């Protein structure tokens, strides 16, 4: 069993190294941002561990310095992370084979862990359940460690650093452009961009995401059925 776990861990570590570099930068930025908003380093550390939703954590950090409305936070969380509903549906079969580990896999599924666990072709001699578990654990650890490190380092910065909350937006722009360059045809990217822009104009930034996701999913469902 130890050999099986070690082999799965090595593959997972290799697969998550690119994520580690990104998470270190963004997590440290998040920790510094929280510290500059007046919070002790323990806040970004425990928020990263418990919430574990990068973009949402930046949003909540801003909400915590104003009058706190639990209902607003609940609704905002559902809207911002509504994409995980679609991730979860895609992983039903894969996670169902992971026995007790599937509960942590469900909790720890972020964009990056979903991408790796869904798309990676694991060698036949590697236990996929342990591979997915270690991918999720490692990504979770990278994020929590980076947030804690940023929170500590933020205590040594005596000047205001503006624009830190934009780092998540910048990351998604880079990921989108990278995906765009890799595509053979740009139907999905243009479709997603156009639909999102239309719903953003119609519904505003608070509501456009879940409706955009539903519309995009419906279009591709119809397209695949016709094919």
From TrEMBL:
Superkingdom per UniProt: Bacteria
Claim: NADP is one of the keywords in the record: no
Leader peptide range in chain numbering: none
Spans traversing the lipid bilayer: 12-33, 45-65, 131-157, 163-181, 193-222
Pfam families: AzlC
A Gene Ontology biological process term: L-valine transmembrane transport
InterPro entries reported for this sequence: Brnchd-chn_aa_trnsp_permease
One of the record's GO cellular component terms: plasma membrane
Subcellular location: Cell membrane
Membrane topology, as annotated: Multi-pass membrane protein
Keywords on record: Cell membrane, Membrane, Transmembrane, Transmembrane helix, Transport
Family per similarity comment: Belongs to the AzlC family.
Protein name from the UniProt record: Branched-chain amino acid transporter
């Amino acid at each position: 069993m130890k050999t099986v776990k070690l082999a799965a861990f090595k593959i997972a570590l290799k697969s998550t190294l690119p994520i580690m570099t990104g998470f270190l930068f963004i997590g440290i930025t998040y920790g510094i941002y929280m510290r500059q908003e007046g919070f002790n380093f323990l806040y970004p550390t425990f928020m990263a561990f418990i919430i574990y939703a990068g973009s949402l954590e930046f949003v909540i950090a801003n909400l915590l310095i104003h009058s706190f409305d639990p209902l607003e936070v609940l609704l905002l969380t559902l809207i911002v992370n509504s994409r995980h509903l679609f991730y979860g549906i895609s992983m039903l079969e894969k996670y169902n084979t992971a026995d007790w580990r599937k509960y942590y896999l469900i909790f720890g599924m972020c964009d990056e862990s979903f991408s790796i666990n869904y798309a990676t072709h694991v060698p036949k001699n590697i236990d996929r359940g342990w591979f997915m578990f270690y991918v999720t654990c490692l990504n979770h650890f990278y994020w929590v460690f980076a947030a804690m490190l940023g929170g500590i380092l933020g205590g040594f910065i005596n000047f205001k650093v503006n624009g830190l909350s934009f780092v998540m937006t910048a990351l998604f722009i880079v990921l989108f452009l990278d995906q765009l360059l890799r595509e053979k045809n740009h139907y999905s990217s243009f479709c997603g961009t156009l639909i999102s822009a239309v719903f953003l104009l119609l519904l505003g930034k608070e509501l456009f995401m879940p409706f955009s996701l539903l519309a995009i999913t419906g279009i591709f469902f119809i397209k695949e059925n016709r094919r």
